[in-house]
TrEMBL record:
Compositionally skewed regions (Basic and acidic residues) per UniProt: 16-27
Gene: recX
Annotated RecX second three-helical domain residues: 101-138
GO terms under biological process: regulation of DNA repair
Residues of the RecX first three-helical domain: 56-79
Stored PANTHER family: REGULATORY PROTEIN RECX FAMILY PROTEIN (PTHR33602)
Gene3D superfamilies the UniProt entry points to: Winged helix-like DNA-binding domain superfamily/Winged helix DNA-binding domain
A single GO cellular-component term on record: cytoplasm
InterPro entries per the UniProt record, alphabetical: RecX_HTH_1st, RecX_HTH_2nd, RecX_HTH_3rd, Regulatory_RecX, WH-like_DNA-bd_sf
Keyword Cytoplasm among record annotations: yes
Similarity annotation: Belongs to the RecX family.
Name recorded for this polypeptide: Regulatory protein RecX
Span list, region Disordered: 1-51
Length: 198
């Protein structure tokens, strides 16, 4: 059996006249197993491999996964540079080259969320991502026209039948509100409050 440079064969005790069995014994220094609680152990290796990426390569990597708003991309790239002017120039360049588009980001966000969230939640998300007020209000108006139908679809999927008592009414009403649908739409959809017979 061939040995590598770091291994030697060590005899194992001879039991009751059987032939001598050899086990491999390594002369390499024992490497300590990584401590699973040490969060910094792999960080150096991971960051050193990513440290070589240019700011533009990082930006294109983010944008190739999904659309980002300018503000969101700025926030993600800021920790990787000390030069704020260079970052702004890069963002301008990405917009000129059509890699970065707030309009495309808005369309993507609306497409992902409008089917299950009300106008209020979608508009809030657009504002959090730094989109301009004109774009946000225009999208809000378009979504407002279909809010009742979208609320009805979400409600139908979750509940399917109208509330039969005040507790169930409150539960369904809160659900619609938590999804960002207006109080008016929730009342219109759920109808009159069914008062319990006491």
């Amino acid at each position: 059996m061939p040995k590598d440079d770091f291994e030697t064969l060590a005899p194992v005790s001879n039991r009751a006249g059987r032939e001598v069995v050899h086990e491999r014994e390594s002369a390499r220094p024992a490497s300590s197993a990584p401590d699973p609680t040490d969060k910094t152990a792999g960080a150096g290796q991971k960051s050193s491999s990513r440290r070589g990426l240019s700011l533009k390569a990082r930006a294109i990597g983010y944008l190739s996964r999904r659309e980002h708003s300018r503000q969101e991309l700025r926030r993600k790239l800021a920790p990787h540079t000390d030069d704020a002017d260079a970052l702004e120039q890069l963002l301008d360049s990405l917009q000129r080259e059509n890699w970065l588009s707030d309009a495309r980001f808005a369309q993507s966000l609306v497409h992902r969320r409008a089917g299950r969230q009300g106008v209020r939640r979608v508009v809030q998300a657009l504002r959090q991502h730094g989109l301009d007020d004109a774009t946000v209000s225009q999208i809000g108006e378009v979504l407002q026209a279909t809010e009742f139908e979208r609320a009805q679809a979400v409600w139908q999927k979750k509940f399917g039948q109208p509330p039969t008592n005040t507790k169930e009414y409150a539960r369904q009403y809160r659900f619609l509100g938590s999804r960002g649908f207006s109080a008016e739409v929730a009342r219109r959809l759920l109808g009159e409050i069914p008062y319990d017979n006491v």
